[in-house]
Amino acid sequence: GCASTASEAAEESIVPAADQGALLDSVPEEFADGITVATQADIAPLTYTTDEGDVVGFDQDLLAAISDVLGVEITVEPVTFENLILGLESGTYDFVGDTTIKNERLEKYDMLSYLTSSYSVATLASAPALGDDVTALCGTSMGVVTGELISDYVQTAIDPECEAAGLEPVGLTEYKDFASNVLAVQSENVEGMIVDTMTFGYFQSGDAGADFAFNGPSRMTLSDSGYSFLQTQEQVLAPVIQEALTLLVSDGVYAELLDKYGLTESGIEGDPVLNPEATI
Amino acid sequence: MAVLETGTTDAKRLALAELNTRPRPAYGRYVAATVAVVAAALFIWSLAINEAVDWSIVGRYLFNKRILDGVVVTIQITALSLLLGFSSGLVIALMRLSDSRILQTLATVWVWFFRAVPVLVILILVNNIALLYPELGIGLPGLPMIIGVDTNAVISPFLAAVVAFGANEGAYASEIFRASIKSVPTGQFEAAKALGMGSTRMYWRIVLPQAMRIAVPPLSNNTINMLKNTSLVSYIGVSDLLYTAQSIYAQNYEVIALLLVACLWYLLLVSILSVAQSMIERRLGFDRKKKQKAVLSSEVTSNA
Amino acid sequence: MAVLETGTTDAKRLALAELNTRPRPAYGRYVAATVAVVAAALFIWSLAINEAVDWSIVGRYLFNKRILDGVVVTIQITALSLLLGFSSGLVIALMRLSDSRILQTLATVWVWFFRAVPVLVILILVNNIALLYPELGIGLPGLPMIIGVDTNAVISPFLAAVVAFGANEGAYASEIFRASIKSVPTGQFEAAKALGMGSTRMYWRIVLPQAMRIAVPPLSNNTINMLKNTSLVSYIGVSDLLYTAQSIYAQNYEVIALLLVACLWYLLLVSILSVAQSMIERRLGFDRKKKQKAVLSSEVTSNA
Amino acid sequence: MPETLLEAVGVTKRFGDDTVLDHVNLTVNKGDIVCLLGPSGAGKTTLLRCLNHLEKPNSGAVFLDDELLGYRRVGDSLMELPPRLIARQRQRIGMVFQSFNLFPHMSALENVIEAPTRIARVPKAEAVAYARELLDSVGLLHKADSMPHELSGGQQQRVAIARALAMRPEVVLFDEPTSALDPEFVGEVLQVMQKLAEQGTTMVIVTHEIGFAREVSARAVFMEKGRILEEGTVESLTDSPRHERTRDFFAKVL
Amino acid sequence: MPETLLEAVGVTKRFGDDTVLDHVNLTVNKGDIVCLLGPSGAGKTTLLRCLNHLEKPNSGAVFLDDELLGYRRVGDSLMELPPRLIARQRQRIGMVFQSFNLFPHMSALENVIEAPTRIARVPKAEAVAYARELLDSVGLLHKADSMPHELSGGQQQRVAIARALAMRPEVVLFDEPTSALDPEFVGEVLQVMQKLAEQGTTMVIVTHEIGFAREVSARAVFMEKGRILEEGTVESLTDSPRHERTRDFFAKVL
Ligand SMILES: Nc1ncnc2c1ncn2[C@@H]1O[C@H](COP(=O)(O)OP(=O)(O)OP(=O)(O)O)[C@@H](O)[C@H]1O
Ligand SMILES: Nc1ncnc2c1ncn2[C@@H]1O[C@H](COP(=O)(O)OP(=O)(O)OP(=O)(O)O)[C@@H](O)[C@H]1O
Ligand SMILES: [Mg+2]
Ligand SMILES: [Mg+2]
């Protein structure tokens, strides 16, 4: 993916004229020339590339709005997970998006939440209905995306319940990405998948997702996801971004963007918090 | 024809000797071929009419701009990495074949290292070298640099990709060059030296053209391999053909259709390479005597 | 020593003839070697003391259970795919060398196809074959199956991986076998036939042991390549060494440390393979005459 | 009447448009020593190779005893036998090549026991015993464990002869067995062949060693341009040739 | 007094513990034809190879004109010259190998012009003209565009001789130039060499062709076990050898 300036990506600013550049004064000197941010590439609807090659998505629009509010240019680079982390540590990026907030990570990074991340179970629409209780998953075969929190959650929270109820544990298979999960369900290699609600929602609203349906427990919320900043003494950027985000929440731009991408139910409640206490 | 009197030949034998011979019809071979052709046809047909494959989507994306850009990136990275890989591979092969223990050891370690480490790791390390060495320059570790430049300013992702794939390919190619140089008869080296050639000329004009005959098939294996492996550059933010297809299906979930798009392009690229390969092989096959070839192939058949 | 009278030899010449000769000191080579050794040492040292690399984490994960499981998966898939790849590659090579046009064409198309199509695609297609063909069985397309079984019951992800990698490797290996069989002198084929050997025995006992000498270096290139490429199985829900490392750093963000863990394992595995390779090469190097070798290596040196 | 062992009748071989053998007839009786002589390109090697089906004639037949070699009659043509049967026929015919063609990855002894143990399935101990006997008779028992590249040309050729004899063939074909050898080694190989001749081994030999041919009182067959021009004793051919080409040839090589 | 062109003084060569050449002295004067004779393993090839530094002596010196070949004196030993200078010296010495060693990927003409155009940087047209002249003199002008594998052994060796002459060397070394040839082709190669002899080319020849040596009235040098045992005219060696080994040898090869 090619780097784009956030304000270019959003064709038309949705930030009210009164707010544009409102926070210019609070931006630290060193960032006046611009801020470089990385987000993960290819996770619709947060960041994806259109057929014309434009990089778009909720992340892009939100950063464009932040850029407008700050009155400072923000350059966004959609990259892989590895480069997200390594680029942050090497100072290539001033901060990065799409990171899941965990207590362990808060020791090393400042994290600012801007979405809640939850997991839902999905199957083919033709599949028999599962109950809403998590024990409905006992003994089923489910796909998940590797490295996500849900695997831990299934093993530490759901499997014991299954055992308590005298049922088989959940049969988990980890696939590299969301699309691999979709294929596995379609070809019936697994019965269903436990995936990020946002991603599935976006998928289901498109042509390819028509055969799929939420089925079983949904919106199991484990943590927030947000921006990560390198935690160093002189880190002064995080509060500024928090301020900008707060402004966007309060004047409704944030809600508008959530709505645009069908993410309303994944929005954070109240004002964005820096370094929130995580459940895990 | 004057038939000399040669003793025992009787009428029955003479009668047989009048007949023309014919090769054994290879029934097994015909059966195998028929089965294979039918299987291939069924496979293609069943794919063509399969509902799971949406050919209209394949058609739509085949000449999509992003896909075409991906093809260009794939070709560029492959070509540049091969250049770097083949040239470094040649040097390393000569080092391994030299009689200097030091050079041998160095080359062996180099090959061992770069064959062992996944390209992905080299790629990520080179691209993020700024993390390990924020400044590149001349100087001793721990002391200030004598001349230094900001690492990120020097290493672009594209350069990182070429370096990583080139280093990897160099290690593999060196093994191929080593084996093929060893297959050139000693007499050729000696004839060149006796004419008063220096080593460089000897290698370029005499040894390598002959070594290439054995090296071309495995080297083109490597070339094709690299063509496909370039999809790893997606890890450092460059999109080649395969990754572009993946990134498109990450959004529209038409996994099979987009993989088929990528396949069709790879088939085209590999076809071009295969034609080039057989042209090169034919040009280099200077001493494959007709006679020898005929004998060889008849040997092989009777096995099949 | 009785020196025969041979005319013109004068005192000055006789004096020179008393002296021992010595080879030319290879200054350039010493300098190159020193530079390389120093560079390697600096690199290792700078890595060892680099703050970006947390060696305690490397140590912690090196024998982590998931990593060890990944190593086992890597080895299993590699071994089985090689078995399938080498045997199918041999058959395809013999088909390409046969004098049957049909067999040649079939083999050429097969090689073209499987060299061209990315393993990832074959992997995904084979694993999700149920999507294309929900039942496997005998019958004609469009008509009900005569005998049919549920596809998913037959194709496990592990089997899919072995089939995909095996088919891919087979195409590459066949090119290597083809080149190496062609390098065996015709006389060897004829001697075997003249003794009354059938084709199978001729190939197993006479031709292949000789062809292997040329085939081993590129084949071990392929083996090592596959060892590393198995990480693609993550797309079908199997975790090998490299992918396990990636999925761990997706959780704990220790990218460099976990890549180093994977590297260390690959270095170990490749070292074992390299030792095996050179042992095999030594065993197969039956006719590399001492004399020839000495001449060759002295040629090569003077170039370096 | 002598017993016919190997007989070529009307053997014709073309390579493309080149007719390399043109209705050649040749009879080899049991105990015969036949020397094929003639200029380069005459077709000597091709004829010899037809005698064990290494080369396939376009028409004509080769008989081993009373069996048709390599073919059987089907309708009005000769159809090639399956490879398995051809291999079996070849076991009755030994062959020694100009360039030795020892198997480079096997020791001298292994070269000799390869066919008996693998093809004839003779027990290993028995095969080894006979191989050692053969190596002894070619004077190379002490080199049994040497690899071919450790042997001189003459030694390699002697091992090749032992190998050809290991299957106890009824006839042995030699294609210029000494012409790739340094002159010093020619003698030792000819000596081994002479010994075979004395033991009554049936042999067909392409050679330029007229002296040797004379000594073993071989039947000499002179070939030119794919035909047998004349045959007789070596003396009759060298001293009173019927054809001018024969005279020319002997003038050149003697 | 004859002008010395190539001289070996006290040349000693060891392979491991084997002393293959033992203080050998040999003088080749301008116009000389020297034939090296002797049994296999005597060190003939090794000596010849020392004469153009293909083999590096352990001690002793080879002189080309007044230049030390391949070495210069440094302190009290002889240090090898840089490869560039050795290559330049070798251009003055032609060499013809037993196995021809033509470059298989070049036509006959290309083989001959390779060194002049690439090393001596003779203009292409000029090199081709001279190469055609040389090919003509070995009787192969009509094969100028043939590839080596399309030529017979004798033809290949004649091209190899033309190639060796293309750099106008002052002396030509031959290592058994006819021993890999079929007897029919031996004559054509010897004829070319005889022509060279008549033109006064300086030659050192390892050979077993005593007849040829006698005909060009070569100086014969008999070697055994790494030493020169005796030298003289061919007649003196064959008819009245001073050593028993010499007599034995000639008894064997004549
Ligand atoms: N496989 C082949 N393809 C085409 N032509 C061939 C083949 N084998 C032999 N010939 C031709 O057939 C003719 C006879 O060859 P052959 O080798 O039998 O002669 P020869 O008498 O053995 O000669 P020499 O003494 O040189 O070995 C030659 O003209 C040769 O070029
Ligand atoms: N590179 C080498 N390494 C070890 N030994 C060698 C080497 N070259 C030659 N020799 C040995 O040196 C001795 C002399 O060899 P050389 O080839 O000079 O003999 P030759 O007189 O040319 O014999 P021939 O007539 O067989 O060619 C032999 O014993 C040979 O085995
Ligand atoms: Mg012949
Ligand atoms: Mg010699």
TrEMBL record, chains B, C:
It is a multi-pass membrane protein. Gene3D superfamilies: MetI-like. Residues 71-274 form the ABC transmembrane type-1 domain. One of its GO terms (biological process) is amino acid transport. Belongs to the binding-protein-dependent transport system permease family. NCBIfam families: HEQRo_perm_3TM (TIGR01726). Keywords: Amino-acid transport, Cell membrane, Membrane, Transmembrane, Transmembrane helix, Transport. It is found in: Cell membrane. Pfam families: BPD_transp_1. InterPro entries: AA_ABC_transptr_permease_3TM, ArtM/GltK/GlnP/TcyL/YhdX-like, MetI-like, MetI-like_sf. GO terms for molecular function: transmembrane transporter activity. PANTHER family: L-CYSTINE TRANSPORT SYSTEM PERMEASE PROTEIN TCYL (PTHR30614:SF0), MEMBRANE COMPONENT OF AMINO ACID ABC TRANSPORTER (PTHR30614). GO terms for cellular component: ATP-binding cassette (ABC) transporter complex. Its main location: membrane. This is Polar amino acid transport system permease protein. The keyword Ribonucleoprotein does not apply. The chain crosses the membrane at residues 30-50, 70-97, 109-133, 153-173, 255-280.
UniProtKB/TrEMBL annotation, chains D, E:
The keyword Lyase does not apply. It is a peripheral membrane protein. InterPro entries: AAA+_ATPase, ABC_ATPase_HisP-typ, ABC_transporter-like_ATP-bd, ABC_transporter-like_CS, MetN_ABC_transporter-like, P-loop_NTPase. Pfam families: ABC_tran. The keyword Cell membrane applies. Its main location: membrane. It is found in: Cell membrane. GO terms for molecular function: ABC-type amino acid transporter activity; ATP binding; ATP hydrolysis activity. SMART domains: AAA. Residues 6-250 form the ABC transporter domain. One of its GO terms (cellular component) is plasma membrane. Keywords: Amino-acid transport, ATP-binding, Cell membrane, Membrane, Nucleotide-binding, Transport. PROSITE patterns: ABC_TRANSPORTER_1 (PS00211), ABC_TRANSPORTER_2 (PS50893). Belongs to the ABC transporter superfamily. PANTHER family: AMINO ACID IMPORT ATP-BINDING PROTEIN, GLUTAMATE_ASPARTATE IMPORT ATP-BINDING PROTEIN GLTL. This is ABC-type polar amino acid transport system ATPase subunit. It comes from Microbacterium thalassium.
